[in-house]
Amino acid sequence: MSMDDKDLNPRFTRGAVDIVERKVAYDGFFKMHKLRLRHRLYRGGWSGEMERELFVRGNAVGVLLYDPTHQLIAMTEQFRVGALERDPGPWCLEIVAGMVEAGESLEEVARRELQEEAGLEVAELHYIRSYLPSPGGSSERMFLYCALADLRGIEGFFGLAAEHEDIRLRVLPAGEVFAALESGHAAIDNAASIISLQWLQLNRERLGQQVAQVSASD
After folding, report:
1. Cα separations (Å) of 83 from 80, 142, 181?
2. Is 39 found in the same domain as 63?
């Protein structure tokens, strides 16, 4: 049976969940809601009421920076509190990323973060996909893009001091990054970076052809 022949949609939708009570358990840098709910069961009827904590994060945007002409990839390196117990330490190698603020479009966020974390203005963004990083307890949805740019000589230190950002932008040979990805190197161990880099592996030939066609027409 081919994928087209399969029905991938779950049996139930949002209407099969009954939120009995919702309370704000914490409202600080992050938000946490405490829910009392029940939901439909596959075998029929409803579940008993249960309590669940929900980490309320909203939407985020991530951007992979790629230079198809010189075969370079730029990634950020910064401290992450969630990685305190990570064996290599809490400084992580990631794609450019940031949260969506009220009234912003996804592409506006992508361009803002590229300016803040890499000092770049990029005209064209290639949409990769969106996904839920941790649906078991978080409402966040991540939207991924790839931006093409000349990455030679752009390494430096970036970030907003008011937000306690201390970001090192690194430019690495694409082959080195792909080798680290394929070997499971601990340097690249977050979902947004892994998904974006795997997408680039599948699409870099097409992106290179597009850049060559544009150059030939100029």
Report:
1. 6, 19, 19
2. no
User: What number of residues does the chain have?
Assistant: 218
Q: Give yes or no: 51 in active site.
A: no
Same domain, 163 and 107: yes
Catalytic residue, candidates 85, 116, 163, 176: 163
Which of 143, 125, 142 shows the shortest CA–CA distance to 207? 125
Q: What is the pLDDT of residues 104-136, one digit of tens each?
A: 999 999 999 999 999 999 988 999 999 999 999
Tokens 């439909």 belong to: 40
Q: Which two tokens stand for residue 110?
A: 């992508």
pTM: 0.91
Query: 10 Å Cβ neighbour count for 78?
Result: 17
Question: 101: domain range?
Answer: 59-217
